[in-house]
Amino acid sequence: MIAEIGQYVLIIALVLAAIQSVVPLWGAARDEARLMVVGDRSAIAQAVALLIAFAALTHGFITSDFSLTVVFQNSHSLKPMLYKVSGVWGNHEGSMLLWVLVLALFSATVAIFGQNLPPTLKARVLAIQAMIGFAFLAFIIFTSNPFARLSPVPLDGTGLNPLLQDPGLAFHPPLLYLGYVGFSMAFSFAIAALVEGRVDAAWGRWVRPWTLAAWAFLTGGIALGSWWAYYELGWGGWWFWDPVENASFMPWLFGTALLHSSAVVEKRDTLKSWTILLAILTFSMSLLGTFLVRSGVLTSVHTFATDPERGVFILAILAIAIGGALILFALRAPGMKGGGLFAPVSREGALVANNMLLTLAAVTVLLGTLYPLILEALSGGQSRVSVGPPFFNATFSPIMVPLVLLVALGPFLAWKRGNLRMAFGKLVPAAIGAFLAIIITYLMVPGGPALAPLAMGLAAWLGIGAISEWSGRIRLFRSHPRDALRRIHELPRSASGMTMAHLGLAVMIVGITGSSAWRAELVTTLVPGQTAEGPGYAVTLESVIEGRGANYIFERGTLLITDGGRPVAKLNTERRFFPVANQTTTEAGIRTTIFGDLYGVIGERGRTPETADAWTVKFFVNPLVPWIWLGAMLMAVGGFLSLSDRRHRVGAPRRAATALTKRVPDSAE
């Protein structure tokens, strides 16, 4: 009965989305408040309906209701409760329900807290959100019904993919969806502005918090997924340029550009067309990621669906949403009023260059991701190529170098017209720090790649530059400490958040450089009690014991790591076999310090009489790798700190009365 309630409210949500798509849009066109307010009420009602549907599906997983097809295929009575709950979104149908739930919650948030928005703009934003929701609700109901019943009812389920039975993967998808779907708000604001015919500084203020929230959530989601892959998959790495990894990275790159561009619209009332286009492209990449994960064109641990018919449905949604948005942009953007002029050497100029580099980086990742799929489709499956880390390292990394240089320089430039000499004068400490970082790295690790010291210098340039800019704002060391503390309190949180995010990027660069440039590994076969000499350490397989977990059988190996005979660490690593899924997973043993990780994994047992008592052992030294996730955490926290800025809570200034539909003469631009 509870499942039928979920099915019923899902249909109600579809009807509400249809009403929300049409009525407030019509009301905005006629400027009738009683019609526009329907958008608010239907958005809240739709969110409530989807919350009920999601709760009904969760109840099915918790109670192991195997009469539901999705529960039978993705759960088991022996699963721990955490993974019964995470199993709700650890499959195609449940994850799509979470997708539309997040979309509806964002819409409801606008309806409840968007009192400072002009009624017509708010109505149009909610209508655009509802159109997206209607399309995906139709997709769920007609192709991916999470409440489909089975008859006869099986005695037990087939279980969740063992790779997904991990705390990291339990929380990774919701964070990603808050980012993916959160960018729909920027998209809806952009389309609503084009329909309304007005983009101004107030619009930039309204769209910025939604972009900040989505960006921060997506940053956290990508970092959590990377961390999971690092300790769960057992290959010792944290990023492989997998197409599905790229599917989340592309909207992050475009979203980062959008975040900076919207600041220019807010501060200087310029770059309007470009910001609108970025909002469209950012959410387009989110839709593309949804298509890649659910169309069956990719085979990956990250993917959900393999049914081509579902892929065609999503492809149609993607084509209508992106195509329609770009056509509207092409029709309306030429009439967009230009903003104030600015010199190439200015903060606006630095942000434009920042946007160009981020866009180029995103396009590079897009081409590397889609090229193998396009080639395979054009050749009828006869030609298959793999675009992996060598391509991305050779094309993506060089784009990042000038970008990082600009990130440190930009905040020191004035709006409208900057002074390079003055900006570089303030960056002298950063330049000295970068030079020292290069020299120290070269002297301490002389045998590494030639470019590694330069990368460490780049990180020092960015980190010290960010701290210098922030300390200059509070006049640190140039005034009484009490005055500095007062200025910290008075400083806008967005400024402190920007500093933290830039500092987080510098910390990430340190981690990426260390783990990539000086990583060392040992792969060998050992019997218990045997020792092998590894990279700087000796590795002893002390013992291997067998046992049983909640729903798996394990082999647990203990690796003793010594340095010159002195014990350094004991690493406990497991191979887990899940009988229900007939699948084996790996749990790495990791010893983490601020300087890096010692990482050990046991593999398969020997299959010949001579190797029956031996196990494959992999040991890695990953220098500075924890700095990657520390940096990502700082970036996400910086985003949320900026989001808490009072200016995002008190609303935007009153709008100007001009509309973008009236072309301003070139002389006025």
Please describe the topology of this protein.
Blueprint: H1 2-30, H2 33-62, H3 69-74, H4 81-86, H5 92-113, H6 119-143, H7 167-180, H8 183-196, H9 201-232, H10 243-268, H11 272-294, H12 308-332, H13 347-378, H14 389-409, H15 420-426, H16 428-444, H17 452-474, H18 481-490, H19 493-517, E1 520-526, E2 531-533, E3 538-548, E4 553-563, E5 566-578, E6 583-587, E7 589-593, E8 596-605, E9 615-623, H20 626-643, H21 646-650
Antiparallel strand pairs: 1-9, 2-3, 3-4, 4-5, 5-6, 7-8, 8-9
How would you characterize the overall build of this protein?
The chain is an alpha+beta fold and 669 residues long. The protein has four domains: 1-160, no CATH class; 200-403, no CATH class; 404-516, no CATH class; 520-626, no CATH class. Helices cover 61% and strands 11% of the residues. The chain is built from 21 helices and nine strands. It has helices at 2-30, 33-62, 69-74, 81-86, 92-113, 119-143, 167-180, 183-196, 201-232, 243-268, 272-294, 308-332, 347-378, 389-409, 420-426, 428-444, 452-474, 481-490, 493-517, 626-643, 646-650, and strands spanning 520-526, 531-533, 538-548, 553-563, 566-578, 583-587, 589-593, 596-605, 615-623. The strands form two sheets. It has a five-stranded antiparallel sheet with strand order 2-3-4-5-6, with no helix packed on it. Strands 1-9-8-7 form a four-stranded antiparallel sheet, covered by helices on one side. β2 (531-533) and β3 (538-548) form a beta hairpin. α5 (92-113) crosses α7 (167-180) and α17 (452-474) packs antiparallel against α19. The relative contact order is 0.09.
